[in-house]
Amino acid sequence: MAEDASLAVDYAALSDFRHALRCFLLFSEEHAAEHGLTPQQHQALLAIRGAPDAQVTIGFIAERLVIKPHSASGLVDRLRALGLVTRVTAAQDRRQALIALTPLSRALLARLSATHQEELRRLRPMFTALLTRLD
User: What residues does the HTH marR-type domain cover (predicted)?
Assistant: First the structure.
C-alpha cells in the first residue's frame, strides 16, 4: 500500500508539472498568434536568435525544432516571405544556406521575449515547487 501511495504522489507531481508546462506553452502560442506568428515560427526565430554563432543553417533549425530538414526549409521560406529572415548561400559551402533575422523580426522577437520572460518570472515559484516535488 505504501508503494501505491508513493506512486500516486509521483503521478500527481508529473501530472501537475505537465499541466504547468502546457499552460505556459498555451500562453506562448497565444502571444505568438497575437503578433501574427505560428508557434513554430516563433520557435524558429528564437532558435536563430539564440544560436551560439551566426552560422545558422536549415539543419540547425531542424535540430532545434525537432523537425525534418525539408520542413525547416519550408518554414524558413515562409518566414522569408513575411520579411522575418534572410537566406543566403554560405561562402564556404555553397550547398548550405545561412539564415539570419531581419530588423523586423528582431523587434518582434524582443517584444515577445519580454512578455515571455515576465511570465516565466511569475511562474518561477510554481515551477520550482513542482520540480522539488519530483525529487
Answer: 1-135
